[in-house]
Amino acid sequence: MYDMSTRKQALALVAQGRSLNSVSKETGVSRAAIRSWQERLEPLDRNRSVPCPRCEGTPRPPEDPAAYSYLLGLYLGDGCISHFRRGTYFLRIACADAWPGLIDLCAEAVQIARPANKVFRVQRQGCQYVTCYSNHWPCLFPQHGPGKKHDRTITLAPWQQEIVDAFPWEFVRGLIHSDGCRITNWTTRIIGGKPKRYEYPRYFFTNLSADIIGLFTDTLDAVGVAWKQANSRNISIARKEAVALLDHHVGPKH
């Protein structure tokens, strides 16, 4: 018998993409035991009556659509879903160590999406992977598919678009928390005949997918935030009123 901490450690190592053989050698747990744990991950060991809202006879939105809208933004920015075995998948969202508050928010949103499943935080160099196994991640994120997101078409399902329309700021916050930043730019102005330094805040959002950039800018339009496309992969928000809106609803990473 293995205690729960050993089980969690082994599954966290597997979530990094390690082979069963290497995890078995490091933890002393047999490959058969690790494999059996993987097949019983949904649910882990808590409430076994939490269904997938998209798999019911009449599909419905997630229980907490605001948290889902935020998680959707995180997933489109820095998340991926990988197939494990026998219908099991794991969601993995990369979060930089520099923003511990963001890591907590991410883990909370993942837990809300699948409340009966364990959420892992896997430490890597400079970042943590917030990871959770479930049979139902492709149901909740139909954007899942082979290859990188920027190499395939990314569109929202109608039910997802309804959630984003109802909770646009949560979606924007998730995208900026994953692939955005708030910085302080500076320039010089001639005042009284002398050049003086002038600083101003600006938000950037960067993504290789034109589709994801389009989802971001469409949502900014919906909430009245002015933006400019700096280049094919960068969106800039620099107008004073627009920055004030983002400061109120999003704010710097923390």
Notes on the protein architecture:
The chain is an alpha+beta fold. Among the domains are: 1-38; 171-249, Homing endonucleases (Endonuclease I-creI, Roll). 41% of the residues lie in helices and 24% in strands. The chain is built from 10 helices and 8 strands. The protein has helices at 4-15, 20-27, 31-38, 65-78, 100-113, 137-140, 158-166, 168-179, 210-223, 240-249, and strands spanning 79-83, 89-96, 119-124, 127-134, 180-191, 194-206, 228-231, 234-237. The strands form 2 sheets. Strands 1-2-4-3 form a 4-stranded antiparallel sheet, sandwiched between helices. Strand 5 (180-191) and strand 6 (194-206) form a beta hairpin. Helix 4 packs across helix 5 (100-113), helix 4 (65-78) packs across helix 7 (158-166) and helix 7 packs across helix 8. The longest helix has 14 residues, at 65-78. It is globular. Residues 42-48 have low confidence and may be disordered.
Short description:
The chain is an alpha+beta fold. It is built from 10 helices and 8 strands.
Feature tags:
single chain; 254 residues; alpha+beta; Endonuclease I-creI; four-stranded antiparallel sheet; 10 helices
